[in-house]
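Troubleshooting: if your tokenizer reports a length mismatch, compare against these two reference records.
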Amino acid sequence: MTHSSSPSSASPVPVALSLGSNINRYQHITHALDALSDAFGALVCSPVYESESVGFDGSNFLNSVVLITTTLGLDDIGPILKQIEDDNGRDRNGPKFGPRTLDIDVLTYGDLVGEHHGIELPRRETGRNAFVLKPMADILPDTRMPGSDLTYAQLWANYPKEKQKLWAVPFEWRGRVLS
């Protein structure tokens, strides 16, 4: 299903974002949380996990999922996220799978399913990668993944844990212990 526009209204929409970094990881995840809070207000943050890189040989990543609520459409959120990545030294000339100072991806936008503004929703990696699915199950356990009959907790319970290893790491942000 392809839609030509995403909703933009006075009604707030929950948006799940994945954060990942494997270069100066703690610094860039902290800066991302600060910038997202400044741009969107209150954040619901998952624990921060460390995982091996996927798709290339590289340093381990720190990953987290953040839930924001916004009245902005996808076409308005994208440039904000790209600016946060750029402010954190994101190099867009490297390979698709390679080291990242910061990567922020939209995982879900409300309950939209399909391609919207060039973004596939929910993002494919949401149900495929432990470093996305586990944090989603942490913050939205009883929520059904858009386009699925299963909740994030059910999807995580069914996930083959040996496929990708991840582990929570100590992380504090603005005096809050996230993990």
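Reference record two:
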Amino acid sequence: MFLIRRSFRVKKGTARKAADVITRIGMMYEKSGDRLPSTVFTSGGSVPGPADTVYMEWLEEDLKSPYRADLKKPRNEDALFEELRQYQEESWVEFFEVYVPN
């Protein structure tokens, strides 16, 4: 099992607006059957951590290519990512293997 974290550095003061779009992106992938539910959270502002940063995490059984042939592209994917672009400055992805004790 793997935890995937996608982090977004967004323009100053737009973290909550970006988090709303990112939440809708996660729900879109969940509805398409391509992803388990995701959690979206922010740092900075009222909590410690880098300001103007939004995170989305979800679990995956296996790491799979986003370019695989059997991937179902959600209908409104392009529109949501276009909406996110007005807030996003950069993003990166991290992968963690979830420890399961024997």
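Descriptive notes for reference record two:
- The chain has two helices and four strands.
- The chain has a mean pLDDT of 92.
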